[in-house]
Write a structure and sequence with these properties.
CATH superfamily of the largest domain in chain A: Stage V sporulation protein AD
Order of helices and strands of chain B: HHHHHHHH
Helix content of chain B: over 70%
Number of strands of chain A: 15
Order of helices and strands of chain A: EEEHEHEHEHEHEEEHEHEHEHEHE
Structural class of chain B: mainly alpha
Strand order of the largest sheet of chain A: 1-2-10-15-14-11-12
Low-confidence stretches of chain B: none
Distance between the termini of chain A: 24 Å
Radius of gyration of chain B: 21 Å
Largest sheet of chain B: none
Shape of chain B: extended
Largest sheet of chain A: 7 strands, mixed
Number of domains of chain A: 2
Number of strands of chain B: 0
Number of helices of chain B: 8
Strand content of chain B: under 5%
Largest interface: A-B, 32 and 40 residues
Shape of chain A: globular
Oligomer: heterodimer
């Protein structure tokens, strides 16, 4: 049995994170991580005639570039696991249509990056695959139109609202090689404390983040150098810190959130911070992964957080279910 | 989980930033007032410049404001005004025009019939439905009371 504690899968074999490739939009490129991304696309549409097509181009190009840089051939890739925010996860399946790789599409809202990496690691550890590419994307414009209002509609955003990251990251997991290794994976439970405000996703997701993080730490007993959540923003980050403090187990000094890392909260007018599948994905691919490679940190707990929000369910009076998945990485 | 829905609500309230009500009201007053002032200027121009009758100049000013708002929406400027103006840019007739033009533009990619035409009243629909309902009730009352 490779399961430890209540909820964590322990990876016994080697699952290396061999490389990443990140592509972001203009606003993300102007943020604090601007010089760390592999590619910055200035035009929202990237030469396509719709935002949806642009988003799938982000995802497709991220995978193609990752393969190109590492001289990977299609027949070496056993599986591509991907997901995004759009209905029927179209960016993922349409990118997979072009890439012609064996494909599993998953939906975990903004928790997708850790979800795909967790699933990929289990498959490699189980001996079913040698090389897997995990990829996610989100696009501010396609997400706004599906979940909120038309872009040209003039109005004010709530102070607790977040800014969907335009970007995609592809991560190459392999049985062979060297570098940072996935050691433990915890898939979270849906946690819902009744938040119904679609403008306050950080608050909706924070209990799920706390639940998965504390369970992972309890199950593994590992003292991580850095704990990072996906896109809780300033609101959710504050709540998670408070919850751990109440347990007399403050993580404040080694805890951060990708939504607050990717943008300059004050200068870039993003209110509570960044969000979207692309948020934790691009911050991991461009920044956290490199911190591991450079030896700045040795043990990283990467936890993507998702608000499994549906505009239809919200209108019907439902609250927003939150989810978080943790991937423990060590070098 | 150590919190229940009620106790968590208090935590959420503690961490959720409040909207800047006073500042928003001030900007709404300035922007909304400026749009009304522009309407008055249009009206005066139509009367003194074009020789329109007073009762015609009002509707003409409304049409001009709607046209201007549609143009600014198309150029991608109205949403930027709306960010500062808030209710001041939503409530006047220009806001209504913006709420019709913005979905029309957005859904153009799905085609003119099933995209634009089907979705053009997505935001303005409730205003139209309740506007007609209010007009109907007012008409009914007038009929009854003579």
């Amino acid at each position: 049995m490779k399961k430890i504690g209540k909820q964590t899968f322990s990876i016994k074999d080697n699952v290396f994170i061999r490389d990443t490739y990140t592509i972001v939009g203009k606003k993300e490129g102007q943020g604090p991580l601007g010089n760390k991304f592999h590619m910055i696309v200035e035009d929202d549409l990237w030469g396509e005639d719709s935002w949806e097509k642009s988003e799938l181009k982000f995802q497709q190009t991220a995978v193609e570039k990752l393969m190109e840089v590492n001289q990977l051939k299609k027949n070496q890739i056993d599986l591509m696991i991907s997901g995004d925010l759009l209905n029927q996860i179209t960016s993922s399946s349409f990118a997979a249509r072009a890439l012609q790789l064996p494909y599993i599409g998953v939906y975990g809202a903004c928790s997708t990056m850790a979800l795909t990496m967790g699933l990929g690691s289990l498959l490699i550890d189980g001996g079913f695959a040698e090389n897997i590419i995990c990829v996610t994307s989100s696009h501010f414009c396609s997400a706004e139109r599906q979940y909120r209002l038309p872009l040209e509609m003039g109005g004010q955003r709530h102070m607790s609202s977040q800014w969907t990251v335009t970007g995609s990251a592809a991560v190459w997991l392999s049985k062979n090689g060297s570098g940072p290794r996935v050691k433990n994976v915890t898939f979270g439970k849906i946690t819902d404390l009744g938040v119904k405000d679609a403008n306050n996703m950080g608050a909706a997701m924070a209990p799920a983040a706390y639940d998965t993080l504390s369970q992972h730490i309890k199950d593994t007993g590992i003292d991580y150098d850095l704990i990072v959540t996906g896109d809780l923003g300033t609101v959710g980050k504050g709540i998670v810190n408070k919850m751990f403090k109440e347990d007399n187990n403050s993580i404040e000094k080694k805890y951060d959130d990708c939504g607050t890392i990717i943008f300059d909260i004050e200068k870039q007018d993003v209110h509570s911070g960044g969000s979207g599948c692309g948020c934790s994905a691009t911050v991991f691919g461009a920044f956290l992964y490199r911190k591991l490679l450079d030896g700045d940190i040795k043990k990283l707990l990467f936890t993507s957080t998702g608000a499994l929000h549906s505009p239809t369910a919200t209108l019907q009076g439902e609250s927003i279910p939150g989810i978080a998945h943790s991937v423990g990485i060590e070098i | 989980m150590k919190y229940d829905k009620d106790s968590y609500k208090q935590v959420v309230d503690e961490f959720t930033p409040k909207n800047k009500m006073l500042k928003n009201c001030f900007y709404a007053f300035i922007f909304g007032g400026a749009i009304c002032l522009l309407g008055e200027i249009f009206k005066n121009i139509f009367i003194s410049g074009l020789g329109a009758a007073e009762e015609d100049a009002g509707p003409m000013a409304s049409v001009a404001l709607v046209g201007l708002s549609a143009l600014l929406t198309g150029l991608g400027w109205y949403d930027k005004l709306g960010k500062f103006g808030g209710a001041g840019t939503v409530v006047p007739i220009t806001g209504f025009a913006n709420s019709v033009v913005s979905p029309a533009l957005e859904f153009k990619r799905e085609g003119y019939i099933l995209g634009t035409a089907s979705n053009i009243f997505k935001l303005a629909g409730p205003v139209l439905v309740f506007g007609y309902l209010a007009a109907f009730i007012a008409g009914l009352l007038k009929l009854i009371t003579g």
